[in-house]
Amino acid sequence: MRATFGVPHLTTHVLDARTGTPAAGVALTLRTAGGEVLATGETDADGRAGLGPDVLPRGDLELRFDTGAHHRAAGVPTFHPYVVVAFTVAGTDHLHVPVLLSPFAYSTYRGS
Question: Start and end of every Transthyretin/hydroxyisourate hydrolase domain (predicted)?
Answer without folding.
Answer: 10-111
